[in-house]
Write a structure and sequence with these properties.
three-stranded antiparallel β-sheet; 351 residues; alpha+beta; four-stranded mixed β-sheet; binds iron/sulfur cluster; 14 helices; 40% helix
Length: 351
């Protein structure tokens, strides 16, 4: 059932996409696709992993850096961990970067550098969940898989005037989206629905007047489109506190720490510090004349807000604590730090 009444949704969306597809560095546009250009699964996979929880605008430069430095999955699989983590710094959700490397190495080692081309086989790779497997299968391999991101959820809720709140309504929205997915050009169709949600059926002010689905759209007819999709109320995020210690030796070297692979910011460079909790104790990494800096660093993670107090101390050149990295001032790049650690560095530097 691909029609609502006698309206062919996929034809309307594909016709609109042919003229209005967004230009993105990882995308093979509809004209090239029609001319026989095939998407590179490596680029599709990389972009989809980067886009998890992150906007297209934020991902663009990272994608270009990554693909310039590591143009294919074999090159990425051979890259040292710290270089990949460094390039990823600032993009957030660092478990994605660790899984990215794991996945590249599995594809390189177990699949001769070729990504598997079905949803089920893709789902077995590290860091690839149902959404990403469906997106890669559809976009890279033209499989008729249903891709349900926030844009598609919004379009489906409005198009069918579904008032059940998210996230409970996801299965229903997915069923509706699946029923519309065509056998013809499923990769272009998946991207068309996402583009419609990103550029026309936008969260705050849907441009129904120029929407290719305006005639049959039940939400528009009912006048409820701006209220949809409904969402269950979120629990407020708790606030945690922590202490971070930034010290520079007289020769300019900075003392850093590579965080353990497990947990938040796992594998990333950072400043030594306390646990993050409601009332953390001070935890200087070694004895020194630590002094608190005025001000504080605030950062919000998915599940909590963090307030960090920053301490600093003057150090002689002989300071070389176990388990810390003594980084030469010329080798230190703030861009290698995850955002919260870069905010701490900025506060310290400005002081
Ligand atoms: S008509 Fe309006 S509400 Fe319906 S899909 Fe198009 S933009 Fe969204």
């Amino acid at each position: 059932m691909r029609d609502i009444g006698d309206f062919d949704v996929s034809d309307a969306l594909l016709g609109w996409y042919d003229h209005h597809a967004r230009d993105m560095p990882w995308r093979v546009g509809p004209a090239d696709r029609a001319a026989g250009v095939v998407p590179d699964p490596y680029r599709v996979w990389l972009s989809e992993v980067m886009l998890q929880q992150t906007t297209v605008a934020a991902v663009r430069d990272y994608f270009l850096h990554f693909t310039t430095r590591w143009p294919d999955v074999m090159a990425l699989a051979a890259a040292p961990d710290d270089q990949v983590m460094g390039e990823w710094a600032g993009l957030g959700y660092y478990a994605r970067a660790r899984n990215l490397l794991k996945c590249a190495r599995v594809v390189a080692g177990d699949h001769d550098g070729q990504f598997p081309d079905t949803y089920d086989a893709l789902l077995k790779l590290p860091g690839i969940g149902p959404y990403t497997a469906a997106a890669i299968a559809a976009i890279a391999f033209d499989r008729p898989e249903t891709v349900l991101d926030g844009n598609v959820e919004r379009v489906m809720a409005r198009f069918y005037d579904i008032h059940d709140p998210l996230p409970g309504s996801k299965p229903l929205l997915k069923d509706r989206a699946a029923a519309l997915t065509p056998a013809k050009r499923p990769g272009d169709y998946a991207q068309a629905v996402m583009d419609l949600g990103a550029t026309i059926c936008t969260p705050k002010s849907p441009a129904c007047g120029i929407c290719p689905l305006r005639d049959p759209c039940r939400g528009r007819i009912a006048g409820t489109q701006s209220e949809l999709p409904r969402k269950s109320p979120k629990r407020p995020k708790p606030t945690r506190h922590g202490h971070a210690y930034i010290a520079q030796r007289a020769d300019g070297a900075l003392l850093l720490q590579r965080r353990s692979d497990k947990g938040l910011l796992g594998g990333m460079l950072g400043w030594p510090g306390s646990v993050w909790s409601e009332t953390p104790s001070e935890a200087p990494p070694f004895p020194a004349d630590w002094q608190p800096l005025p001000g504080e660093v605030r950062h919000t993670f998915t599940h909590f807000h963090l307030i960090l107090r920053i301490w600093t101390a003057p150090l002689p050149n002989t300071t070389q604590p176990d388990e810390l990295i003594v980084m030469d001032k010329h080798a230190f790049r703030p861009s290698d730090l995850p955002t919260v650690m870069r905010k701490a560095y900025d506060l310290w530097r400005d002081h």
